[in-house]
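Researcher: Go.
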Amino acid sequence: MNPDDAAPEARLLRLFEGHRLTPAQRRIAHCLVQHAAQAPFLSSVEIAELAGVSQPSVTRFAMTLGFDGYPALRKEIRGLGLSDAQASGEKREDTSLSEPQRAVLAEIANLQHLAGLLADMGPVARAARLLAPSRPLLVLGLRAAAAQAAGFAYFASKVHPEVRLLDEGGSMLADRIEQAAGAGATALLCFALPRYPAELMEALSIAREAGLSVVTIADSAFAPAAAVSDILLPAAVGTQLVFDTACAPMMLGRVLLESMVDEIPGAEARLEAFEHSATERGVFAD
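Model: Structure:
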């Protein structure tokens, strides 16, 4: 796929790929993505205020990306057509909506943003090729991300010969990762959602030290797990309610699994065998 054909948001994220960013610079990058429609018109001072950093930090961020300064970066961002893409579907917020209604609409917007990123399936395809051959395949998710990891592992086990779910922390987590690597595992899929547990970062470091490739689905391309991941696939979480919602990360996980099916020998036959067995045993009521 031609990079110029990708969604504007995906092209914006591509500006930041391959660069080692400091925590402050990750905040700036995340801020630009969050305010993509306004980014082409914001000054470095305004970006600094939004990101909670100093104005010189914004200048250094632009130079880290290879630009002479922030004006050159802003010119590049303007060329992505972000404001036009956002404006074409922009609607005024309806003040008559309830809090739950606004939360649902925000989640829909997250899914629409994900749909734009998936115009370029390259990163997902590369992740599928890393994960599919791993025997066993490790799926990691702690605390808020445990449900996402469990859902992925449940469905993946129907097409992959051996899936090991890692959804509890503690000293045994390192043991299980090292044991899986010793048994032949080559890759680990991680779900990293806020708030990020410190032991998650420790587990990913252990996985890398054990020689495993790490693919991470996170709420942002600038999540801490990005520093120890071979591939990071972003999908935003909803923040309108007291507790975050994670429809987009769940959808991205299913899209990734769909791509993996094509890379796993015998996946279709394994799924058909499960369905036949489930029918024979009366597993489901329908």
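Model: The domain at 8-84 is CATH 1.10.10.10 (Arc Repressor Mutant, subunit A).
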